[in-house]
Structures are given as C-alpha cells and as structure tokens.
C-alpha cells in the first residue's frame, strides 16, 4: 500500500526526505465555502478537488497539500452570488497573495513541481495571478526551475462522458453550479451529505448577458432563490463515479506528461 500522501500527516523529516528523494508533484487544492443549493454541503468546491488529488497521488509521485477552503466571491451567473448565508469569500487580492505565498513556501522546501487544483469557477484568474507572482518572486531569488500547472478538474470531461451524464445536452459550466456534475460526484464520494429530496425542480437560470452590481436576490433578474442554477434531478452516484474516475485518470496522465513522471508501482497493472 502506498505511503501517506497528505502533507499534514507527515512529520517534517519524512516530508523533507520525500521532497528530496522522490521529487513529487505537490497538489494544492483550492476551493471555496459557497452555498450549493438546499441539497449539497457548502464545501463541495473543496471536497471534490481534494478527493481527486488524493487519488491522483496514488497513481503518480505526488503529495497533497492541505486545501485552501475559501475562494473568490461567488458570482450570480456562475455560483448564485455572494449574498447567500454561509457563503464566505475572499477579496481577489487576498486570494492572489495566499496562492503566491503558499507556492513560494513549497519552492523554499525544494518542491519544483506544483499543480494548483482549482475547485471553484470564480477562482481561476486570481489563482493564475498568484502563480505568476510566485514565479516572478522565485526568479528574482534565483530559482528558475519551478513549474506550476493550474488544473480545473471539470475541464477533463470527455465528450463521451458528457453524452452519458447530460443526454439531453450539456447546459454550460457556469450553469452547472449545484447541478448534475457536482451532485453526482458528491453522491459517489459523500452520499451522506446529499439530500436528493431537496433538489430544486426549476429549469436552468436565464440571466441577462451582463453583470449587475450591487448584487442582491432582487437585483438579478432570473436568479433562482434556491442557489442552484439548474436542477440536479438526474444526478446519480454512477454518473459521479464515471466523472470522478475520468478526472483522476486524465489529471494523472496530464501530470505524467507535463512533468515526465513514472507511474507509482501500485498504479502499474
């Protein structure tokens, strides 16, 4: 059985040895605390990339960093909006600097391969800026051999899986907030946290093609009061297993290609 993959469960000497001897990829999940309708927990955006990261780390030489559980502000047309109770968000500058500082610290430890595992749609460009600032800082310090990937797991969805999970047509990633994909994966990973009897039955949200500020439930035409942007009635654990396994395999392959990794012994059939 493969040894521990979560960094926080290692003692410092074992961590130092693993970084020195194995040159692992450090997988850094970045999520959010954001409402996901009445049927899902608010930490979906952290639970899913962390679970994917832990499985990927059993296929390739990798360690999983503790997750960042807060993300950028939920936007109405992709996450329902930041006004819902429980949604707890960061300013963009805070998120940028957090990512910059954490990546810089891993590099200080000797880590040269990093993948930021983004689980929250609104985080994307702030993570990108944090990566850029970290690499600039490292270059200024004479460290020029660090490579970082930003990975949105949902971007590994194949057309074949898309046709199976959404036989009536794929709505769009922004509208999939608390939809079939996230609900199905949560049914696969944490069925005890999913309440299918509470799934909203309304159709997909219909927004105007622009953003409106300030944001409130009454200021955004078409914003569902449930917080979900589409119904997840067709979600199943089997669909979740299909997607989860596809994401794990696809990301492991991407890391292997980009970092020229050898597979872990237990992953070789």
Write a compact overview of the structure shown.
The protein has eight helices and four strands. With 269 residues, it is an alpha/beta fold.
Describe the structure.
There is one protein chain. This protein has 269 residues and is an alpha/beta fold. It contains eight helices and four strands. The model has no long low-confidence stretch (mean pLDDT 96). The longest helix has 23 residues. 43% of the residues are buried. Helix 2 crosses helix 8, helix 4 packs across helix 5 and helix 7 packs across helix 8. The protein starts with 11 loop residues before the first helix and ends in a 10-residue tail after the last helix. The chain has a single domain, classed as Creatininase (Rossmann fold, 3-Layer(aba) Sandwich).
């Amino acid at each position: 059985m493969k040894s521990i993959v979560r960094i926080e469960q290692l003692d410092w000497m074992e961590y130092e040895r693993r970084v020195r001897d194995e040159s692992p990829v450090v997988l850094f999940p970045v999520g959010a605390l954001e409402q996901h309708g009445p049927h899902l927990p608010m930490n979906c955006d952290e639970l899913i990339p962390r679970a994917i990261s832990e499985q990927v780390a059993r296929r390739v030489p990798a360690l999983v960093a503790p997750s960042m559980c807060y993300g950028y502000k939920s936007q109405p047309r992709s996450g329902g909006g930041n006004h819902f109770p429980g949604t707890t968000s960061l300013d963009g500058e805070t998120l940028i600097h957090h990512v910059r500082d954490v990546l810089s610290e891993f590099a200080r430890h000797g880590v040269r391969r990093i993948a930021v595992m983004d689980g929250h749609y609104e985080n994307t460009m702030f993570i990108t800026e944090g990566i850029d600032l970290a690499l600039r800082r490292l270059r200024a310090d004479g460290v020029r051999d660090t490579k970082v990937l930003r990975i949105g797991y949902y971007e590994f969805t194949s057309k074949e899986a898309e046709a199976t999970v959404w036989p009536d047509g794929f709505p769009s990633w922004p509208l999939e907030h608390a939809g079939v994909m996230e609900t199905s994966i949560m049914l696969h990973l944490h069925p005890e946290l999913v309440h299918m009897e509470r799934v909203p039955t309304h159709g997909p949200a219909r927004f105007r093609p622009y953003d409106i500020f300030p944001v409130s439930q009454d200021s955004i035409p078409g914003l569902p009061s449930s917080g979900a942007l589409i119904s997840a009635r067709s979600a199943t654990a089997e669909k979740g297993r299909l997607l989860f396994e596809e994401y794990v395999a696809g990301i492991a392959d991407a890391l292997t290609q980009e970092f020229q990794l050898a597979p872990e012994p237990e992953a070789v059939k």
